[in-house]
Task: structure prediction
Amino acid sequence: MRFPVLCLIALFTMSGCAEKGAFDLFKMDKAHERSIEELRTDSIVLSLETKAIISALYLNPVYPEQYKDGEHFIAAIYFENDNRSVKERNFKDIGYRLTLNGQEPVEIEELREKDLRRSLIPIRNTWNRYYLIRYKNFSEGALMLQLENNQTGKVVLNYQKGK
Result:
């Protein structure tokens, strides 16, 4: 009889009401919330080996006032190790293409380590290469960002362009 009473007391003691939950400690601003929503990640895998990983953030819905002159993406791309040093690798040099709805980018800028724009994408690691990519404007509808290589395959990240 003592054991059930002690369990009942312990249950009531430890089940106190709390006004705040653990997720209340992780407040994000609207831009950060939107960037999490617009982030897509996928990988190219061939014979159980990861050849490339791309994480791309569609910047236009996150920062609509700054990115008006085309479709803007910031991408963190990992490529498998090859004989070149990490600092010399570029996705075009090793046979990859990055297209949006089949169109080549208008501008690609590699973001160096200390570039503040790298903080726009919520991914931080040393093995990725970071790029700011601009494409021409597309009308409303689906946007398909595709990273492909003739030898290893392709991956498509889908976005929806709003009004």
